[in-house]
Q: What sequence folds into this?
């Protein structure tokens, strides 16, 4: 593998790195059209939208227009390089990849951060999304590359977000005085790299010779890479810690489900409101979610590590808050089930405390819970377990005494797109919903966006999956 | 390295405390030879620690024995562990098995009608193992109550009342004062067999424990705080209002048996007993536990019935204490339909803060402990210990009963007649507490009671004391330091506090030449006992005014050279561990008590913090009034004892002599951990 990359880099030097002087970037620079880039081939294009097709996420449908930069390299590796050069750089962008896509970002055309599809990998390596590629150093030990601290990669076709703070190497008297550093890298809101010093350019760099500036380069050698909202700017100086008192060192308490699911009652902040009757469930596969026991609402899902319980179990634990550690996808705290008088009736925000009898939960062998409650004269078992997809949750509802016009709301967000065969995409491509079409799901427009609702049939059975 | 040092420091502290206790026990009483025989708690009631695997944070919130004699323990991390062989029979270690996990700070666990029930912050939960694999797979919510999300909204229980209802209590939240932020916080609730909820009584503040006595009446343990002058236990009956008015927000709700409104409760600072006469429905404690002397945070109550084997105290109650890591003993009697009685020390020296007490099948007491966030004398963060009775009879005051003209002391062994007859063997004082929104209360209206007559029963097990008068509604401190048993034992614990809610009717003892105490003698006796106290108090007050300067001296025309702000953080800590000052500079220290309990800020001479802390404890019932500032030159500067949320600034000139001075909170129970170094540099 390592050998391959080195071989490829030689090829690259010969073909793809025209020695032209690049202007230095000034302040914030946005790169949302191909005009900002140099490209070696026609694998790159601009589109208004692109949607992958589940469940294989290999084919995709494009909408012509602009706003999204798309790479479809086929079998050939392809590069996109900014016309501007950067020294110290802070940058962020949204991107998604196809199933099995191999892609990366090269800071200054030299220092590689991997963006490859890493959906649901439990033990990520430097080749995974957020990994830092091997550097050309004399030292062949394992310390010349960095696996991400956590893997919070989303499913193919879903937008992911990267935020990087990078320090360029410094030179004096013709020789390097300070190494380049990835100060921090966040993917989907989670820290994946921190203060990683780079001894030299990565294998596969456009140029192995280190300099104080260089372009931003995207590389994609299979599958699909979509990029939008790319901006780069000079990093803001980091405010030094206020002098004076030493801040208190607290040993954090994190919970890692081992072998089986961990269920944790706590308080949780959601949309800046402290929720009190909630439970979070984490799995060894890092499929995590929170559920409001007083609304029957599956209200957030996340991948990556489970929770930090320091604010519950350190000293008095005054906040009593569990903090999700991974990349959270917020859903809704409104009840999952409601009776709708007519097709346009608004979905209720909540059920009054005394109108909802939460009855606890039962666990199966894998400690997947079935939550039980009664409200509005009907009784519900709401079972949530890991689904068959890579990273997914299967929700199975069993309602008895089903009243007329009882609906289940699967999603509400600004937009919901039907992908066919019972697949939907909600939010700004933030998660998928999959449901058997026999349940007759309907997208309805609301004043604030769209909702995916399903009538609850007379037998009271309903199931669907969330995939992200 | 640091850790090692601090462990050494704790050992040193422990040694100091222990040697102090021993010195007290061995102090010869005037007029007695030093042949007095001393009994020690450790010999009569030995303690044993149950080993806990290092990876299990067994912060005990609830405890119950199961039919197979395994001990089920619920923790503040929300787990339930089943511990088989907690008795370590056959020398084998106990085995821990995780039964349930992930509940929200479980502070009560009980085995009722064949099931494990526990209380989480928001609900009463039943745990069942449906598939028989030894782990709960059904967490059934039997009843759920609202929460505001405040950490102080704890919930406790359940226990079963004598009619088969489950009983649960809900703590007030804390927002700078105790507040009922959501429905039924500050209440005791009952649940019938179908889990229909009935609000039962209001006015609770921090009802961490409750239990039935042998008669089946419910007693709950209350902690000092706003509207609670000192810790206590109280008898709870339907419709009672126990004293903290914030819970009355909900008294208008359907089903409430309490009719009082918040506006019905006067905030005058008059003794609660007097206020209760004018406010029907306001219930006063059955027994007050003088703060810092007999606990600072009453907890688990255990009734000594058929299950127990703890020596000659059947029918009494044991009450644990979290902050002081000890168990106290309560003897109740019912006078004119009202419970009252006396509290004694019983056993101290537990390893952590006692929250729960249970009877083992061998008649021993199991103490489940946690101290995280509050600290405890024991020093450990959590623990599980067992107390046994060695079978040796301790010489103790078994009970004290009220008489129309005084008290009758019942002893566990026949008393030595000459010491029992000597009025100098006793010291009796009466006092009470203020009832107000302020946190805690000093002991007020303190008075020495004069003994007029002493009569010893024929079997020498009872001593009747006739007093100059009895103060109804007051706490009566009864000390009997001079008493010896016929076999010349000193009392293992020679004092108790009797809360006199009602003066009984009955026979007044005829005073005769045989039992009369000479007036002169009585007077002298009281003078002798009072003088040192009064002197010490005066000295303390005088000292405080010099050391406690709250106005900037006029000569400081340029103001202080340095201003320092000190706050607190939860878990009995100041927010600074060390302060460095230049010798002789003008200093202003502002102490912000941003905690939810009482604290002061005291600067001592180098190495004197422990000594000052111990001296503060000895101020006894006067301590709170004196801000726990002992009269000693070791105290250099201090703030007063501050209410939660209050702040005070003091002015002083830093010492000229360089060195590592110390600062501490001298409030009993705090000084061991709440301290730091004040470094004076040239």
A:
């Amino acid at each position: 593998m390592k050998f391959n990359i080195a071989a490829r880099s030689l090829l690259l030097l010969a073909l793809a790195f025209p020695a032209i002087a690049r202007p230095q970037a000034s302040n914030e620079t946005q790169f949302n059209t191909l005009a900002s880039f140099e490209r070696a081939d026609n694998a790159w294009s601009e589109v208004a939208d692109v949607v992958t097709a589940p469940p294989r996420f290999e084919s995709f449908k494009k909408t012509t227009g602009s706003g999204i930069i798309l790479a479809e390299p086929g079998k050939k590796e392809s590069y996109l390089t900014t016309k501007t050069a950067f020294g110290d750089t802070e940058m962020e962008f949204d991107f998604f990849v196809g199933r099995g896509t191999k892609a990366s970002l090269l800071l200054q055309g030299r220092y590689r951060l991997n963006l490859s599809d890493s959906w649901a990998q439990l033990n990520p390596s430097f080749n995974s999304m957020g990994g830092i590629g091997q550097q050309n150093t004399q030292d062949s030990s394992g310390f010349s590359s960095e696996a991400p601290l956590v893997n919070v990669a989303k499913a193919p076709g879903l937008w992911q977000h990267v935020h990087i703070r990078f320090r360029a190497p410094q030179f004096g008297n013709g020789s390097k005085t300070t190494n380049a550093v990835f100060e921090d890298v966040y993917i989907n809101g989670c820290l994946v790299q921190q203060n990683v010093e780079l001894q030299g350019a990565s294998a596969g760099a456009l140029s192995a010779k280190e300099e104080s500036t260089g372009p931003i380069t995207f590389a994609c050698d299979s599958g699909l890479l979509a990029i939008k909202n790319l901006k780069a700017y000079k990093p803001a100086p980091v405010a030094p810690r206020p002098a004076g008192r030493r801040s208190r060192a607290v040993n954090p308490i994190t919970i890692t489900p081992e072998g089986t699911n961990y269920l944790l009652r706590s308080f949780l902040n959601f949309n800046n409101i402290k929720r009190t009757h909630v439970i979070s469930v984490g799995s060894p596969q890092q499929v995590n979610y929170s559920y409001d026991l007083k609304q029957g609402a599956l209200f957030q899902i996340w991948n990556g590590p489970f929770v930090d319980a320091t604010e519950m179990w350190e000293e008095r634990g005054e906040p009593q808050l569990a903090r999700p550690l991974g990349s959270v996808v917020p859903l809704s705290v409104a009840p999952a089930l409601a009776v709708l008088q007519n097709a346009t009736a608004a979905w209720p925000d909540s059920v009054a405390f005394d109108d909802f009898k939460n009855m606890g939960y039962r666990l199966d062998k894998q400690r997947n819970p079935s939550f039980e409650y009664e409200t509005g004269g009907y009784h519900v078992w709401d079972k949530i377990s890991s689904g068959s997809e890579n990273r997914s949750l299967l929700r199975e509802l069993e309602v008895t005494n089903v009243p007329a016009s009882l609906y289940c709301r699967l999603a509400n967000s600004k937009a919901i797109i039907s992908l066919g065969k019972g697949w939907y995409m909600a939010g700004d491509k933030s998660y998928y919903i999959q449901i058997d079409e026999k349940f007759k799901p309907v997208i309805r427009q609301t004043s604030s966006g769209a909702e995916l609702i399903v009538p609850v049939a007379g037998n009271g059975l309903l199931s669907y999956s969330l995939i992200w | 390295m640091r850790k090692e040092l601090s462990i050494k420091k704790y050992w040193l502290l422990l040694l100091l405390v222990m040697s102090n206790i021993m010195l007290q026990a061995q102090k010869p009483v005037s007029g007695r030879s030093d042949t007095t025989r001393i009994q020690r708690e450790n010999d009569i009631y030995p303690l044993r620690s149950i080993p806990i695997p290092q990876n299990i944070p067994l912060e005990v919130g609830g405890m119950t024995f199961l039919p197979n004699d395994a001990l089920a323990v619920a923790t503040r991390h929300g787990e339930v562990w089943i511990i088989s062989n907690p008795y370590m029979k056959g020398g084998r270690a106990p085995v821990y098995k995780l039964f349930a996990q992930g509940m929200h700070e479980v502070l009560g666990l009980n085995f009722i009608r064949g099931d494990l029930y526990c209380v989480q912050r928001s609900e009463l939960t039943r745990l069942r193992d449906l598939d028989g694999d030894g782990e709960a797979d059904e967490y059934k919510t039997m009843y759920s109550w609202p929460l505001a999300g405040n950490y102080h909204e704890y919930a406790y229980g359940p226990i079963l009342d004598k009619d088969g209802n489950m009983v649960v209590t809900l703590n007030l939240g804390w927002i700078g004062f105790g507040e009922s932020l959501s429905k039924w916080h500050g209440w005791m609730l009952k649940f019938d067999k179908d889990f229909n909820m009935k609000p039962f009584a209001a006015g609770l503040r921090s009802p961490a424990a409750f239990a039935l006595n042998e008669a089946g009446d419910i007693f709950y343990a209350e902690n000092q705080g706003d509207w609670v002058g000192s810790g206590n236990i109280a008898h709870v009956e339907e419709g009672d209002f126990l004293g903290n008015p914030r819970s009355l927000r909900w008294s208008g709700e359907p089903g409430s048996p309490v009719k009082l409104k918040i506006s019905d409760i006067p905030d005058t600072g008059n003794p609660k007993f007097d206020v209760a006469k004018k406010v029907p429905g306001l219930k006063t404690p059955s027994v007050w536990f003088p703060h810092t002397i007999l606990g600072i945070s009453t907890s688990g109550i255990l009734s000594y019935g058929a299950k127990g084997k703890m020596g000659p105290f059947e029918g009494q109650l044991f009450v644990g204490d979290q902050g002081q890591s000890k168990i106290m003993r309560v003897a109740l009697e019912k006078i004119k339909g009202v419970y009252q009685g006396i509290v004694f020390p019983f056993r101290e020296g537990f390893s952590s803060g006692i929250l729960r007490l249970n009877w083992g099948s061998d008649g021993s007491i199991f103490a489940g402990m946690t101290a995280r966030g509050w600290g405890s004398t024991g020093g450990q963060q959590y623990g599980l210990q067992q107390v046994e009775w060695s079978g040796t009879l301790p010489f103790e005051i078994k009970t004290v009963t009220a008489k129309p003209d005084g008290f009758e002391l019942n002893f566990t062994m026949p008393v030595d007649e000459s010491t029992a007859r000597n009025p100098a063997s006793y010291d009796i004082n009466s006092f009470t507490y203020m009832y107000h929104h302020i946190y805690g209360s000093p002991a007020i209206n303190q008075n020495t009671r004069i003994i007029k007559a002493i009569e010893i029963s024929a079997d020498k097990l009872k001593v009747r004391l006739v007093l100059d008068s009895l103060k109804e509604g007051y706490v009566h401190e009864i000390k009997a330091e001079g008493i010896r048993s016929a076999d010349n034992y000193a009392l293992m614990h020679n004092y108790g506090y009797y809360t006199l809610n009602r003066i009984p009717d009955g026979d007044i003892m005829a005073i005769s030449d045989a039992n009369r105490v000479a007036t002169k003698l009585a007077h002298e006796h009281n003078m002798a006992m009072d003088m040192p106290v009064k002197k010490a108090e005066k000295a303390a007050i005088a000292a405080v005014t010099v050391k406690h300067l709250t106005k900037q001296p006029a000569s400081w025309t340029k103001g202080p050279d340095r201003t320092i702000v000190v706050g607190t953080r939860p878990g009995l800590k100041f927010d600074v561990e060390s302060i460095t000052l230049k010798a002789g500079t003008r200093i202003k220290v502002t102490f912000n008590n941003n905690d939810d309990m009482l604290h002061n800020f005291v600067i001592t001479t180098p190495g004197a913090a422990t000594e000052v802390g111990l001296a503060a404890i000895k101020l006894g019932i006067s301590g709170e009034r004196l801000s726990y500032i002992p009269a000693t030159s070791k105290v250099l500067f201090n703030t007063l004892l501050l209410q939660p949320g209050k702040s005070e600034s003091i002015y002083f000139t830093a010492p000229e002599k360089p060195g590592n001075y110390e600062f501490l909170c001298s409030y009993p129970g705090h000084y061991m951990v709440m301290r730091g170094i004040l470094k004076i540099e040239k």
Remarks:
- The longest helix of chain A spans residues 2-15.
- Residues 1-19 of chain A have pLDDT under 50 and may be disordered.
- The first strand of chain A starts at residue 29 and ends at 30.
